[in-house]
Amino acid sequence: MQMPETRVLLKHAEDPELRTLAGYKRYDGYGALEKAYRQMEAEEVLKELEDSGLRGRGGAGFSMGKKASFLPRGEMQKYLCCNADESEPGAFKDRELMQRNPHQLIEGIAIAALAADAGHAFIFIRGEYDLQADILDAAVAEAYEAGYLGENILGTRRDLELVVHRGAGAYICGEETALLDALEGKRGNPRLKPPFPAVQGLYGGPTLINNVETLSNVPRIVAHGAEWFRGFGTEQSPGTKVVSVSGCVQRPGNYEVELGVPTRELIYELAGGPGGGREVKAFYPGGSSSPVLTAEEGLDLPYSFEDMAAAGSMLGSGSIIVADDSVSIPHMALRTARFYHHESCGKCTPCREGTNWTVKMLERMVHGEATPMDLDIVASVQENIIGHCLCVLGDSMAMPVGAMVRKFRGEFEQVMAEAGTAVAA
Amino acid sequence: MSGKEITLIVDGREVAATEGEMLHDAAKRGDVEIPVFCYEPKLGEPVGACRMCLVEIEGIPKLQTSCSTPVRDGMVVHTRTDQVKHAQSAVVEFLLVNHPLDCPVCDKGGECPLQDITMGWGPGKTRFTDDKRHFQKPIELSPLVAIDRERCLHCYRFVRFSQEVAEDEQLQLLERGDRTFVGTFDDRPYVAPFHGNITDLCPVGALTNYTYRFRARPWDVEQAGSVCTLCPSQCNVSFTVRDEQVKRVVARDNPDVDDGWLCDRGRYGFEMFAAEERVTEPRLKGAAGGADWQAAIEKAAAGLKAAGVGKVAAIVGDASNEEGYLVQRIMREALDSENVAAGRAYGILRHDLVDISQPALSARVRDIDAADAILVIGTDPLHDSPILDLRIRKAVRRNGTKLAVATERPTTLDGGADAAVRYIPNATGAFLDDLVKSLSGSGDGESHFGADASQIADVLRDAEKVVVVWGENVAWGDGRGLLALAEALNIAEHDGAGMLEVPELANARGLREVGCMPEAGPGLSQRLGGMGVAGIRDGLQSGEIESLILFGVDPIRDFPNTARWKSALAAADHVVCFSMFENKTTALADVVFPLESHAEKDGTITHPDGRLQRVRPSASRPGDIRPNWGILAELSLALGFDTGISSQPSAFAALAGEVPFYAGITDGDIGGRGIRWQEGPAAAAFPTRPEPSGDPVELVFENEPGETTYTEARSYDLDVSTYRDLWVGPITELNPPLRFLSPRQTLELSPGDAERLKLEGGDEVTVSQNGSTIRARVAVRERMRDGTGFLIEGTASDNANALPDLAGTIAAKIAKVGE
Amino acid sequence: MSPVDGPGVSNPNLPVDPALVEGRVPDRVPEQVPELHEVDCPPDLKEHIETLMGRYPDRKSASIPALWAVQRLYGWCTPEGIRQAAAVMRVTPAYLESVASFYDLLHTEPVGTHKVAVCTNISCWMRGADELLEAFRSAAGGDEDIFVTGFECLGACDIAPMVSIDERYFGPLEAAEAETAIEQLRTGKDVLPEKALEKRPLAGDAGSTGGVPRAGDADA
Ligand SMILES: Cc1cc2nc3c(=O)[nH]c(=O)nc-3n(C[C@H](O)[C@H](O)[C@H](O)COP(=O)(O)O)c2cc1C
Ligand code: SF4
Ligand code: FES
Q: Do C142 and C193 belong to one domain?
């Protein structure tokens, strides 16, 4: 018997009609928007969001309400960007949310824009999500038509323009400042922080950036209140989380659970575990940027921001990639490093050169052309990257690769030796 | 920047700083060197890309880039802790991952920041053993600059230059990650007027000058600081000299003048110093080979003396203050003639000049940076004073300064301007009238330029700090309009507001102030009776003038109406020509004296904003060339007048003694950065504004400036005017690397006129006026005024100056060649 | 404000005086902002890009959408197409090429009409992505019309190993299905209809891969 999901965001998601305005309204859609726009002051909405303790679902886990409160007040044009770039290996939850329930996101954006006093909003969706972008386009058009977007929303004299902006294939654009550059029509290079986007973001104006899942949570919080939201999850990680589980499991997919459920149950019960008599060897708890945990370290941890951090990893985007005992960790490290090497924007030195160098060393290792000393160099190169880059992409490779070398050193040595013999023969 | 004075602690030492400035700069002032690659404040905001400058700041867990961290009071910074050293050496090691270790064959070797920083902060040896990135070895980025992509550090400097400074957006990063490289669209050449600056900016040997590649090594060259005198911008340069010859020109930052940039003319225009055509010894007409100096001076003096009293004249062009001063002394004191002029055809009348040059009305170059609004009128800085073009862009880009452009021909500043209008060539006076009316709200709507003028007025009206950048010709013949404009804008009342001239001659201001004007002697003292350039020409033809000194000018090429000049020079009894190069004018001269180049001479010049700058001898003079001031002093002696000048310092002392507002300025005051006389000890001695009475001296004009016909019906095809192209003249013809830039004669016209005349871009046409005809290629340009076309002055062939009445607008007939 | 880094509205573009370059560098004229009359931009493309520019506070924001439009029209971002977009947007072609070359989905070299991207990232790799990519490569043979490439994570690890064909997702696939898919592409048929992501139920719902029992929706 499986552990049940707790569906808030994915509630009614099996209904194909949900993606239309009519379908969404059948389940009380846009009720929260009406409430916020007609009955609440921006400050009240903001307070509700802060009180809910909603933490960002895009990776860093920062309090959403607090971030919105950082935006200066005043006459200047402010912006809201929904980060729908979802490109981290292992993550596919935003895709599901947009595909199945686009109006929930649009409603969340409109309410968050009210709280942040933003007049322009953008959904930056990765270019590969063509289907989802089409669905969003259609939903946005419906929302304009119905008066939930555009000028004078519901006759409240408030305006909001919402544009769906398709990216063109670059993971780095998920990094919030790179996203801004990309949205300004440039190459998606991260910017220096400070200034933070909340102060100086898109077109130089204060900008609130939130993940799709974060914003999708907003309507329910406004509809039912912060207290209700805090009724799910843990003290420090309130709410539910859509968790993408993939890799060596029998039923890969998105599962919505309360934060803090045992990780083992997510992997084994909901996703069915490795099957075929295999066992979990290690897993990334929060996408490919999170340091891998061994089965012993991780399976019994509650799935929450705080417990993953305490274990030396992170919940990140909430995407679990499972490696069973058939998976070669050195090869997995190589795949991981290759990804970051391919995606490094190239702006800063440690990441641009460090990812390149790491890939070359790992390739030599799995081809048997490396010496044990290279293993120390790989580890030291990861150390040299961490904390020295302009954005977190460099660390996102160095931390998991570093963790793999550290935790599975024996396996690396074995792979090197075996490949070496094969080469010699 | 807030400007608040604060203190911080860097490596245990207290450092005073200004709040908000970058930590790297503050540390440097406290003598703590933090290594950088990508940081270059001239390029705008820091990018923080190279990560070389990481330091530890107490209270912040992660290391921070000092190039992008503004300082705060009480900040405690460590730059040499283990953590910092580890980070710095890691960054160097990463930089070397893909950087070829080919220093022995790299042109940057010996003056390479990467080499230096690797020695100072690097890990000693790299652990990288894999293959490095490969690109095709040096390839042509432009005909002047080679790029070696393997050496690139991705410091962003060159792309930032192209995007942030020149704003041409030609140089771009292509691809992503460690595959990133710098390139241009479709691999086309990067040709833009300032592109050489990228070679100064590159911290490695990725970008090198073809003109310098493998010519010298840092240890066998010397750097000599001087000033470029090729245009009125007077940028500060440093000559790289080997074996007493200039091998390279690099920028020498002076924020008061050039902001650390050079145009490609100043940077690459030095090979002409050694051109075949260079005059390297005195020469007498009809004699083969060079002449003896003494004989030449005597011959010159005899010819000048033979002329009747007052029947001699001098025209000065490219000259230092000392040279101009000596020429006018020879005229006035040795030959008793007031006929001394600088320039081409017209000039500014003394009383106008005195009016407009009042210190209260004068702008400094720096004022552009902080202006609320800038008006560019009657000049395209890109052609006339290139560095100002960058300066104005910077103000608009960084400070949101409002920009208004009013010119005859489209300018490159139009795109960023809040208003850009075209007036009819030669109608500046009418336009100024309308503008002043519009500014003061008294326009009656009847004027010719009413609508355009009010567009410009709208941009300027509410601004306090307005800088007016005006082309010399705006004040030709009549400067009252300009003065009225200054009054309407309340320039005198506002700090930071002012007028800045873009004259035609590089040292126009200095030459006028030392007395090269027919109606003004040194210090702009009032004189009467002299002839201007056009008067001298007509005088030569009529016999009123018999002898002539030409100093650094080539009338046959550069002055309007070639035919008249040819006959004038032929009619002269005696022509003494000082020239750097042999040309059509020297061919007609009786005595030719060689001139020093600006890399060879010693002297002062005066920037259009009043800054006296020093030109220093940096290279040896080829052949038998002697200091120009010395020849002039000797010539004067030979004429029986002792100037008392025996050295360049004594020449400067003498002129400073006669120009009251230069008084007390010493060589030390001028130093490496120059000094504006307005800020000098004797600024108050500038002549006061003259009484409006007194009859102004008449200048002779071919076409009265300001006189234009506005008729629609016409018997000709097009009004044609001219402009001076950045690349025209010996600068491109005598510098082999720049030769490709030499312009061909081109007739620019508006799309409307092209359609009316059934012409297309690239068509060959003839342009005829009063029996003279030249050929030109057609170019169709947007943003032109219908009815007016433009030709280039001074081209090697089909020179527009050959058309007789080109001084003003001409009514020309256009015919397609072959039809 | 810096176009390379940092916030800001794009510079008013200030091109170099065309007179300074034109005719001086034989046939390889450096490209300024092209004038519309020089580029022969199809009216539909022009109108489309103008609409796009109108959607943003700053015209440069339309550069990625404009490049998409160029690519949809010509199959890839051809130099001519880039010049056309640049003329409409009033930017240099170099600027647009720089942007295009940064992004994996925009092609600055010719590619086939059909684009097949096989994910080879971690989750798909674990489930046979390398073999799948090989299978697609050999099924496509040397067909220049079908552009097969390995790709980083496409955000569909739940249907690993998966492929994106002409911008729609399919999975999980057996290597053998590559042949079928390519054949369907060649004959203009619907590709692998039963494997389209769109058809897939929610993971926890009955009928999905493992048939997890209907989970409880949260009450509110
Ligand atoms: C390299 C990199 C990639 C990222 N990709 C994404 C992404 O695809 N989606 C996302 O929501 N956040 C991503 N982030 C995190 C964002 O920078 C940002 O923190 C987030 O969008 C904030 O939204 P949230 O507070 O709602 O989580 C990424 C961060 C980095 C450093
Ligand atoms: S860490 Fe990597 S992705 Fe981030 S700025 Fe540096 S090079 Fe770009
Ligand atoms: S100099 Fe500071 S990051 Fe390059």
A: yes
